[in-house]
Amino acid sequence: MKRKYFYRTAVLSLAVLVSAIFGTSSYNANAAPINHSIHVNGTSLLKVNDYDVLYCTPIGPYVNEEKRLMVPLRSVAELLGAKVDYNGKLQEAKIRWRSNEIVFQKGAKTYKLNGTPAQMDTQPEVIQDAFVIPLGVLVRSMNIPFEYMNNKVILKDLAFDQSKIFQKVIELDRGRSIVDNPSALDIQNFNLVEEKNSASETRGSITVSGLNRTGSTIKEGKEDLHIIGFFNQTVEMDADFASVDIPDRKRPKVNQEGRVSQSLSYLKINDPLQYILAAGRTLQTKNERK
């Protein structure tokens, strides 16, 4: 038994990323979540500080027909600590981060940055009432720090940890206190399945795999492929510390360029999934902590 705390994508092309930040995707945007189920297979496209963002409601990061990485605006804003206003009548979204303000409109290949019109080569969409925007336009226009590594866009700024989402995740993620390499494992493939039954119970399972990027073998007892389910009312993750009645999970040796996978299952009633996050790291062993 594992203790749990309570409370969507594909490989990028470097050439395309250099020109526009994004590349091709195996994420099927047409397989967006419906009222009763979620079925997603993909690979990680987006990372914010120490956590890969695998899914955010109602659709995770995906690449559109113009090969631009698209993200739900409100979800990304919540993760970064930005402010969003959405006008449903005009189908217009306004996002503010630090001193910058950007305005997008559905179906328009123009946007306004601090009141000045600008052009882009794709257009925002509305999917299941969520305003979805090209991430590249957002990060470049608003000077949001980012880098490209291991086939994904990584947004990096200590300020992101102060968003309400990451404050709660960091508060509950006790394993952060004994991390010795926060990027030892490159989060790659994932599978998310969620089904709702007639009793309004939602059963879900997320399986994530990671690749050893350390350049050497990860010793037994150190691997920590850590999955976090962030719901409307609760947060679930495996405990990284053993207790009297719950032993620590097995942490296998991972060879150089080897792969490891972990799964997290959940049962919810009237508590919809908001985010799936994952951290690919190694921990200090008990002997190393002495």
Low-confidence stretches are 1-35
- The overall number of domains is 1
The SSE order reads HEEEEEHEEEEEEEHEEHEEEEEEEH
Biggest pleated-sheet summary: 8 strands, mixed
Q: How large is the share of residues in beta strands?
A: 35-45%
Whole-angstrom Rg: 19 Å
Class computed from helices, strands and strand pairing: mainly beta
Q: Sum up the overall morphology in one term.
A: globular
User: How helical, in percent, are the residues?
Assistant: 10-25%
DSSP helix count?
A: 5
Separation of the first and last Cα atoms: 27 Å
Number of strands: 21
Q: What is the average of the pLDDT values?
A: 85
SSE blueprint and pairings:
Elements: H1 14-20, E1 37-43, E2 46-48, E3 51-56, E4 62-63, E5 69-72, H2 73-80, E6 83-87, E7 92-97, E8 100-105, E9 110-113, E10 116-119, E11 125-127, E12 130-134, H3 135-141, E13 146-149, E14 152-155, H4 164-172, E15 179-181, E16 185-196, E17 201-212, E18 223-231, E19 235-237, E20 259-269, E21 273-283, H5 286-289
InterPro entries: Cu_amine_oxidase-like_N, Mao_N_sf
Keywords: Signal
Organism: Paenibacillus peoriae
